[in-house]
Here is the input.
Amino acid sequence: MIEVSRDPRFGATKVFLLFETPQDLLKCIEGGVDIKKANIGSMAHSVGKVVVTDAIAMGDDDVKTIEAIKVLNPNATGANGTALTDMTLDELKTLLATLQQERATLEAAATTLSPSSAASALISLMREARRAT
Here is the structure.
């Protein structure tokens, strides 16, 4: 993508890009691709991630990556013209701290809880995180 963005044959061609992860988006921005709008969504939940909205679950690395994107490209907007994410850097840092705390809690619980109790604890933590956002 970086090579194509520098190729004069494409001139003012506008494209719609899909990235699998925020980290892939960051690589393009760092490589000089001029991305004016980014719509973050459909980031599925998995172990170590916290549900932020119905369509977004983020882990530590995702939060750090979005912070970096906002620093490198502070004027980037979402598809609807709002900020890349409605979360401020402070809110992202708070989310990151919450993720780190939850990870520590889960790791401690994993050593003392049965599998079903650990699953219940995880579900409770996820619900609390969702209410906090």
User: Anything to note?
Assistant: Residues 8 and 71 are 28 Å apart (CA to CA). The longest strand covers residues 50-53.
